[in-house]
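Progress against Task 2.4 (sequence-to-structure conversion) is shown through the following example record, which the project officer requested during the mid-term review.
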Amino acid sequence: MEPEVGRLTGDDIGPGRFPETAAIIENFEQAIGAKKDFLGRKVLVTAGGTREAIDPVRYIGNRSSGRQGAAVASAALNRGAEVTLIMANSQLTEEESRALQGVRVIPVETAIEMHQFLEEEFPKTDVLVMSAAVADARPSQYSEGKIKKGDLQQIELSENPDLLKSIARLRDKQIVVAFAAETSLNIEIAKAKLVAKGANILYLNDVSEGAIFGATETQGIVLTSNGAQIEVPNSSKDSLAELLLDQALIQLG
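Structure tokens generated for the chain above:
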């Protein structure tokens, strides 16, 4: 890079100033071929696993770590998007959290909280990636005191709203990416879910025996509303994030 022109150490003006940081970063990204194909786009991501409190000690939850959603958020940010991440109870390391600098993170605990923020943020976005594992049900009543072991024989449950289905109904031109964590790679079930949920893209993965949850790698199949089926062999969650964003960009046109 050539020195910038401007005021120097004395009263003289001319070439010799150190380039501004933004200019250095821009030149570096051009040199390494960094993609900025999401410039001007807004990406909304949900991640992690919701928790539905039973009492001050116990909750209904799942094993989602939030890593896949964090990977999508980081990838979208690096590709120039303005990114909002609704994160439920993540298990990210410090290094993984640092990769989210520049991402607007909204922490939530429950499915209802996540739903409220989705309704608020979705109309402002171009792409929604629903990678969070949302609890299907919550206790009908919350106990302010710890429930004694002998009183835990039965817990009445209430169904949580279907976040993806309800939010997709509000869609204008947004692209919606869904996840289906199943215990088999049944393509027909995945196709039906793609339609029922109102999604444009769906990633089907097999979580038998706890696979995928908490891991840094994943495998499965990407289905799209235009009929594409893309096998994802054992790959990093970062690689899957890039693939999903590529497919979203195709559908954005």
